[in-house]
Design brief:
Low-confidence stretches: none
Helix content: 25-40%
Distance between the termini: 58 Å
């Protein structure tokens, strides 16, 4: 039985004609798999069913070929041929008693149709609004088109029922769904009975819901996902108007699914929004309807979840990212194992899989999207191999995860860390502005390994090759991390460039160790992820006059993929950081830097008192290389293998490090697969000619 404080989270709840076994509701979320990797996506959802979720949804599913969002890889339900892969997914979702939901999306002005080549259809004629500003425009739906669209939704609903789903979510949030486009005066500029007043703008939604009730409503619940506030000014669908809409249509769907305006608002990183950040926008809406309400807010605390239910704010706890970080979150709460939850850190690495059209991953949960591809289970390790002892050198994210997972397999593990504190780069980076939640990566793993009787931890233990050869461990895992380069080598410069020794020069490592510049500081960011922007914020807080120079077109350019680039630029601009885009640095003199235009090479000098180089990182691999040079001594020392992992092998984001640690632990003592692929994949079948 769950802790009485959380028992309310496990009460069954009716949603139209179906009943959820508890209040844990995995809202629709993308995963980078979609139609390309359907078995991987299905297995991922199936693991959540095993983990105790009451309701589990797909990502957005394109319900008709006339509105698709290539190059992004989502699910498709264009014809009956699409039913089998979705049926497989529904079966996995329902395997442990969860309700299976499908989100049907018609993207309207967000669908450029680059694959189908159909002319996009939208509520009003206007340019396509996408992440990549595709040079395409949509024509307005006429009355005949509206009839077609209603029929297409019915067809998709019937296919969803045939595939075995219990719920349908009509997508009208984040600016991506046709229903939001009807509701918002910004995108609905019609002068007929579908435009103008709120009642008119609600008409199409009412018609579609009525159609679906006639088609499948006796067996399937119909939910509606709407934005809580578009936050785009007077034309936008505001929170006040959302409340008017729900009051006007209080019994329209079987459940109201409430999400913030744009995707970057709804899924903001922990750097910019705390847990339950949408509570003020949701509070009071439940009083406007007799139907249940689900909301989101990167919920990680069971206490916050229970409070949201008890206060009458929500009926269901909606989660996307927390369900990725720990698919077994509900079960761990139910079994009173709250301390074992892998809490979401809000880094949005999961979203980068969708944004880069690759496969999604998670910093906290390295098994995410590997459940089918590699057979990895988030709570179960493969049995121990023939060896017994492993020494892990380095207690950063890679070393900590390797130690945790090896101990789970049953190995006797020694973890040696050169410093007095575990966590490596996470311990340093968690002290930077907005990154405190990232410390959960180290906290979770340190807590887990300290519970293990087969793990010995040795802090403040710098080791050399002689020591490793004397210890007698069968396997040695080198996870000694990386350090930021001081020579500027990264993307603009493949070799070091001219620097005057008279100019005070700093790296991110210096700043994180408390050695900071003063006065007028230039940050040269050729890394392009979060570090340059975070350090600019740090130094601006300290009173420095900061100029950030980057060869990229955006500050922290890669953070477009984590949906925070706009927030980063806005934050720095508000702090009076001077932002210089499309310019590199080609020389550092004693009192200025020489900057060049990324396009023309035109030079410009920027005076400063100090320079912070955010370039690339250099692997701390000397210990590994020393051991490799003495391979002939391994047999006498009883060493079977030496492997280098994580940043010590090739620097990357923290998620790459935890994945490397987990993979090392999974594959130790396993059969050599040679040149075979280390994962499964699905290959498109040739159609009959």
């Amino acid at each position: 039985m769950p802790d009485s404080r959380y028992s309310i989270l496990f009460e069954p709840m009716q949603i139209g004609p179906v009943k959820a076994k508890n209040r844990f509701y995995q809202v629709p979320h993308c995963n980078g798999g979609g139609y390309r990797d359907p078995s991987a996506a299905a297995a991922m959802r199936g693991i959540k069913s095993e983990g105790g979720w009451g309701v589990i949804f797909t990502e957005q599913c394109e319900m008709h070929h006339s509105s698709e969002i290539t190059p992004f890889i989502e699910l498709r339900l264009w014809e009956d041929k699409d039913i089998p892969l979705l049926q497989n997914m529904a079966e996995k979702m329902k395997a442990h008693g969860a309700l299976a939901g499908i989100q049907l999306a018609y993207s309207g002005i967000n669908g450029p149709n680059l694959y189908s080549r159909e002319v996009p259809l939208a509520v009003s004629a206007m340019p396509i609004r996408t992440f990549t500003n595709d040079p395409v425009q949509a024509r307005a739906l006429d009355k005949s088109d509206l009839q077609d669209l209603r029929r297409w939704f019915v067809n998709a609903a019937k296919r969803s029922k045939a595939a075995g789903f219990d719920l349908i979510c009509l997508y009208g949030a984040h600016g991506f769904g046709i229903f939001q486009h009807f509701l918002s005066r910004a995108t609905n500029q019609r002068t007929d009975e579908y435009g103008g007043s709120l009642e008119n703008r609600s008409r199409f939604i009412n018609e579609v819901v009525a159609d679906l009730r006639d088609a499948v409503g006796d067996t399937m619940a119909i939910t509606l996902r709407v934005s809580l506030d578009e936050t785009i000014g007077d034309l936008g669908f505001s929170n006040a108007e959302v409340r008017d809409f729900i009051a006007l249509n209080h019994d329209l769907p079987d459940l109201w699914d409430l999400a913030h305006g744009a995707w970057e608002d709804c899924s903001a990183t922990s750097r910019f929004k705390e847990e339950a950040a949408q509570e003020d926008l949701v509070r009071g809406i439940r009083e406007l309807t007799d139907k249940p309400v689900v909301g989101v807010g990167r919920f990680t605390s069971p206490d916050v979840m229970a409070r949201m239910i008890r206060s009458g704010t929500l009926d269901f706890i909606g989660c996307a990212r927390p369900s990725i970080a720990d698919p077994f979150l509900p079960k761990k709460i139910e079994e009173e194992r709250v301390e074992d939850i892998r809490e979401c850190i809000g880094c949005n690495i999961c979203i980068t899989g969708d944004m880069t059209m690759s496969i999604s991953r998670c910093t906290q949960n390295p098994t995410f999207m590997e459940e089918w591809r590699k057979g990895w289970h988030p709570e179960q390790m493969n049995p121990k191999g023939e060896s017994n002892t492993v020494l892990v050198v380095g207690a950063g994210p890679a070393g900590l995860e390797a130690t945790r997972a090896l101990a789970e397999r049953g190995y006797n593990v020694a973890l040696a860390e050169a410093t007095k504190t575990l966590g490596g780069r996470v311990t340093r980076e968690r002290t930077l502005p907005g990154l405190s939640a990232w410390g959960r990566v180290a906290d979770y793993r340190e807590h887990q390994i300290r519970q293990k009787s087969n793990v010995e931890i040795y802090p403040d233990s710098a080791l050399d090759a002689d020591a490793l050869l004397e210890f007698g461990f069968e396997h040695i895992c080198i996870a000694t991390g990386a350090k930021w380069r001081r020579d500027g080598v990264s993307r603009q410069h493949l070799v070091p460039f001219a620097m005057d020794a008279a100019m005070p020069l700093y790296t991110p490592d210096d700043l994180m160790e408390g050695n900071k510049p003063t006065g007028k500081v230039i940050i040269y960011d050729d890394d392009h992820y979060y570090m340059g922007g975070v350090l600019a914020e740090l130094l601006a807080q300290d009173g420095c006059e900061v100029t950030l120079i980057t060869p990229a077109a955006y500050v922290s350019e890669w953070s477009v993929n984590t949906l925070e680039q706009h927030a980063i630029h806005k934050k720095l601009a508000e702090m009076d950081v001077q932002i210089v885009l499309n310019r590199g640095v080609v020389e550092i003199s004693k009192d200025y830097v020489v900057s060049d235009c990324s396009f023309t090479g035109t030079k410009q000098n920027f005076a400063c008192d100090a320079v912070v180089l955010v370039a690339s990182r250099m692997e701390n691999n000397s210990l590994y290389l020393d051991l490799k040079a003495r391979t002939a001594d391994w047999t006498d020392a009883g060493i079977k293998s030496v492997k280098i992992i994580g940043d010590a092998n090739a620097p990357g984001p923290i998620a790459w490090a935890t994945y490397a640690g987990h993979r090392y632990a999974r594959e130790l003592d396993c059969k050599d697969i040679g040149d075979d692929l280390p994962f499964r994949r699905e290959i498109t079948q040739l159609a009959a000619l």
